[in-house]
Amino acid sequence: MNDDHTRLYATLATCFQHPDEAFVDAVRNGTLGTIVAECAASLPIDSVDAPPRFEDIARARREYLRTFRAFEGEYAPPPNPPTKSGGTAPNAASSRDRRRAT
Questions:
Q1: Is residue 22 part of a domain?
Q2: Contact (Cβ atoms closer than 8 angstroms) between residue 92 and residue 81
Q3: 30 falls within a domain
Q4: Which of its termini does the chain have fewer beta carbons within 10 Å around, N or C?
Q5: 36 is a domain residue
């Protein structure tokens, strides 16, 4: 892995952190887009989309929360465990109880 890979991964990792003023400023003034484009230029990547624009830190934080909190709601409940037939159990607790009883 070369330095451009390392720099690109490190830069993209900052995009998954809770946004602060420095991040929003980097998006606003084009620093983030420039770094990503520079790194991608030497890699086998056809094109890179520009990062979204943020009006302010509050919007950046709302978008971050929307991404990681299931679109304005609480976290999604865990799915029912699969059954032996490949479907999902309608009542996960009773399926576990039945397996223990046999």
A1: yes
A2: yes
A3: yes
A4: C
A5: yes
* Alpha-carbon span 35 to 96, nearest angstrom: 51
Distance in angstroms between the alpha carbons of the first and the last residue of the chain: 53
Mean per-residue pLDDT, 8-20:
88
Distances (CA, A) of 36 to 16, 28, 58, 59, 87: 15, 14, 24, 22, 43
Q: How far apart are CA 86 and CA 51, in angstroms?
A: 41
Q: Do the Cβ atoms of 56 and 24 come closer than 8 Å?
A: yes
Q: Which domain holds residue 64?
A: 3-68
Compare 82 and 99 and report the one with higher pLDDT: 82
Residue 73: the pLDDT is 53
